[in-house]
Records
---
Amino acid sequence: MQASRSGFELAAEWVRATAEAIEACSCSDGCPSCVQSPKCGNRNSPLSKQGR
Ligand SMILES: [Zn+2]
């Protein structure tokens, strides 16, 4: 069986998907709908659009 993908690779993929979601949003500074996902589990720690 092939080794599963590394955590780094999965994290990079998650970051890329998040960045795409933020870019797709029409806001300029980030809003709850793009920087906070109800599925991410850390809703009290909003991400920064400047941080990517
Ligand atoms: Zn937004």
---
Amino acid sequence: MNLTDIGEFGFIESFATKFDHLIKEGDRGIGDDCAVLSINNTTNHVITTDLLIEDIHFLKDKISAKELGYKSLAVNLSDIAAMGAQPLYSFLSLGIPKDTPVEFLDGFMEGFYQLSEKYHTPLMGGDTTKSADKLVINVAVVGSVEKSKMHLRSMAQTGDLVCVSGFLGDSGGGLKALLEPYEVDANLHKLINRHHQPEPQILEGLFLGKSEHVHAMMDVSDGISSDLKHILKASKKSARIDKEKLPASPLLAEVSEKQQWNLTELCASGGEDYELLFTVKPEEFESLNQEFVAKFGKPLYVIGKIEEGPAEIQWYKDGQSIMLDKLGFNHFGG
Ligand SMILES: [Mg+2]
């Protein structure tokens, strides 16, 4: 059997539970955006780590060194935001091909530093080593969250509204613009920028995390058609999602019309938007949204509802059940 037969998640599932008996009570291992370490009666530390490999996760001739440094930290901070946590420290390890110019590494560190400074998250250590011919980047971030304010994927409740914290699909559109031979105009450039410099929703995560009416939460890394399934599986619920309600930016809508892109597919499966995906008690949505708008100057978007049933997404359009055949990205197929 090959890895492509079981897929990335199949591989993880094959060993994830083996370690359960070694994990001490109050801690949590594999299965959420971060691992959870209980440090006292009131506080948890949360830890995430992410591996980025040249030609798999990024193309060195398509992204600047500074953007790459920024994005390497941003994707990890996004997982901290998903827990409703405050980032504290980062660690960075690099496998560097020996012909790498020092200017490239300086640029990388400048981007990494820029985002570290913004969220007061100092780099505390790591490792550097020689790599044969590809750049390898591993980042880990530690955060902190009050136990009562922490949000897990398993917390969705029947009747909850399914919401996102911002537009979906811009990053996927940016990736399309990078990979296909388009003439890059100002609009495509903006989408590429959304792909290269996603904004981790740290403050939004802290705000949503404080609400007792927000239940499950995670970040959108692979696209909601794939990511929401993790919430459904962990919570043992089903969801009804309305295709028309997926929030596309006016920019993406305009470009999609011009380039004949499938807007729904980009919003559902584009990935790498790093917005927050969460569920909330329906009666509390309006007041939560009002506060959110007042604080962040942008609204929350309701895209569907949590229901009893198998852990699958039922897609709807104009009240009719539809099929959405494009699945979220899975690194090993399967
Ligand atoms: Mg995540």
